[in-house]
Every structure is written in structure tokens, then in C-alpha cells.
Amino acid sequence: MSKNTGKDRKSEIPNGLYDAIKSYGINLPSYEQIAERAGMTRQLVRHYYSEQDDLALDLCNLLADAYRDSLMKGILNAEGKDRLPVFLDFYFNFLAETGLPKPQDDEVYDAMFALASSNQKVRKNLHDQYALLQMTLAHEVQLTYPDLPQDRCRELGYLIVITMYGHWKMVATLGFSDEYNRVSRDALDHLIKSYTVQYC
User: End-to-end alpha-carbon separation of the chain, Å?
Assistant: First the structure.
């Protein structure tokens, strides 16, 4: 087995934090718990991440990368007007059977949002992630409905994001039935139709 480089070892630590949050709960785990999950010493974790803020930021990026990589696989197989439904179906986990499951990371995102309430760096990172998602969805709406005014596309992008986020807080965090995946997904189709009926 090849020896891990320093860079490879550092990249394992955000995964260790991810696993530690899933195991120990929403509070940011200790260096000892992170090291245990990353399979390395506490000293090595502290060597790479003397500030837990930096580790939390890298975890935020790890979470975003997982969504981006999965979505890109789905988008590459979709064309034109099929792309928007791929985005929405992915976020409500309707593509799992096709090999594109939504990451099961809701409790980890809950932890990052809780941290964002008191940590400006994490707040900015998550703000930027969700702003990018809003603009990406607005772009996909514009591609699907080219006659829809841009300000309406931006509104829809925002409403889709908050619906998806609120949905997973209800289902994954509060324990509402998975059947609500279909309720929320259908509600977005109704919302989009209400915007497009006047223009398209």
C-alpha cells in the first residue's frame, strides 16, 4: 500500500469531522473525537488544523463538493429542459435508484448552520454556497423557460432553495415522513407553473 502524502492525510480530517458529527451529535466534536474518526492522532489533526474554524470551513466545502459532483453526473446525462427536473429530483432524493442519491448529511449541515449562528466565517461560507445554488437554479429555470423574466427566475431560484432547505429540516431533522419528499417536490412544480403560466 502506498504511503499517504501530507496533503492526503490533511484531506482525511474533514471526513473525520463529518463522521464525528454523525456519531456524537450537533456540537462541534473535540480534537480527540475527530482524530479517532479520521484514524490519526490528535496531534496530527492539530498540526493541520490549529483552528477549528478552518476545519469547519473545509467541512463546508466537502459537503458542497459532494453535491456538485453528484449533480454534475446527472446533468451530463440530461439535455435542455430535462436539466431542471434533474436538479429538483436529485435534491428530493428521487434519483437514488439511478445511482445519484442525495448525500445523507442533514445532521452535519444542521451542525454547520448551528455553528454559523456564532461564526462569521462559516456563515459566509454557507451564505455563498446557497447564493450560488440560488443562481444556478435561476439559470436552469431561465434555460427551461426562456420567456420568463430574469427577476422572476431569480425569485424562483430563491424560493426553490428555501423550500428544499426547509423540507429537509422537517423530514431529516424533525422526523416527518419521507412521503413528504413527494409533497414538496410536487409543490415546486406547482410553484414553477404559477410563475410560468403568464409568460410561457
Answer: 58
Q: How many CA atoms lie within 13 A of 54 on its CB side?
A: 10
Whole-angstrom Cα distance, residue 147 to residue 180? Answer: 31
Q: Please write the tens of the pLDDT for every residue from 101-116.
A: 999 999 999 999 999 9
Which residues contact residue 173 at a Cβ distance below 8 angstroms, ignoring those fewer than 6 apart?
106, 107, 110
Work out whether the CA dihedral 39, 42, 45, 51 comes out positive or negative: positive
Q: Which three cell numbers stand for residue 192?
A: 414553477
What is the C-alpha to C-alpha distance for residues 32 and 40, in angstroms, rounded to an integer? 9
Q: Which residues of the chain have pLDDT under 70?
A: 1-7, 79-81
72, three cell numbers: 454534475
**Identity (one letter) of the amino acid at 42?**
R
CA dist 101 and 112 (Å) reads: 21
Three cell numbers written together for 181: 419528499
Q: Please tell me what DSSP assigns to residue 117.
A: T
